[in-house]
Amino acid sequence: MKCALVRPDGVxxxxxxxxxxxxxxxxxxxxxxxxxxxxxxAKARADGLTPIAVGIAVPGVVDEARGVxxxxxxxxxxxxxxxxxxxxxxxxxxxxxxxxxxGGLAEARLGAGRGAGHVLFVAIGTGIAAxxxxxxxxxxxxxxxxxxxxxxxxxxxxxxxxxxxxxxxETIASAAAIGRRYAELAGEAAGAxxxxxxxxxxxxxxxxxxxxxxxxxxEALADGLATGQALFDVATIVLGGGLAQAGDRxxxxxxxxxxxxxxxxxxxxxxxxxxxxxxxxxxxxLLALDAVRVQDHDAVRVRDHDAVRVRDLQxxx
Length: 317
Ligand SMILES: [Zn+2]
Known about the structure:
The protein is α/β, with parallel strands linked by helices. It has helices at residues 26-46, 82-90, 99-109, 170-173, 175-186, 188-191, 196-204, 208-232, 248-261, 279-316; strands at residues 2-6, 12-17, 54-58, 61-63, 68-71, 78-80, 94-98, 118-124, 128-134, 137-138, 236-240, 269-272. The radius of gyration is 22 Å and the shape is globular. The model has no long low-confidence stretch (mean pLDDT 92). Zinc ion (ZN) binds at residues 151, 161, 163, 165, 168.
């Protein structure tokens, strides 16, 4: 768990990390989330700061409107009303978001996509997921599941995905898939525990097998991003997650492959994420601040509405 106290201007003043301990089960994980959030609020107060809102981001399917963690494969959440639990425990307005969507929110507003207006943030790690951010707000989808770009089918005859279908983008191009494919092709001894970063390095050094696996991933990614661009027509695509740390070894061939696929679509700017590990925390904070602002706005509207009514009544008299 990455946790932070974040000022309204987007600066993290205190950063903490705690083990998730997912093996303890979802109830214990929820307990730790609330303990850590409560602890951070107490530390803020001890430093003379006033906590005004809580932002929590979790993986899986998240119903942001209801504040419910609907489903998560890695943590085991099933319909956990995290927002209400946090409000009850901390007594502060709370927003619940999705880990990749808040990461995209932060990159679009504070990081590599700043000023772009329309941004597609793509996180490439164990899997591949995206956030489509327009004017600083990430699309959630009708069922809280927008942005599952990793399950775009790019190779119908490709390996079977965890989701059940063959040839999903993440079976070829996720960091996990790149390491796995190299290991399979190299054979047990030569390919054991090879990471995507190792493959990138070996490809750069000219090793044919690594070059092939890397190029396959780049081509598949370009197919997925071209589909994303056809759907969203963004100005900037921000690549995050572990694989983006390969930098130009990824960006240079990927820009070329994406360029080849553009016909009448405008080519987006393709850049690496700028906020690194902090993106999730900053994005959760932005979401919390947005929620507070909406509340304030509604309160002002109610107040203004009441003032108008009072004035009308006075005029009638
Ligand atoms: Zn899939």
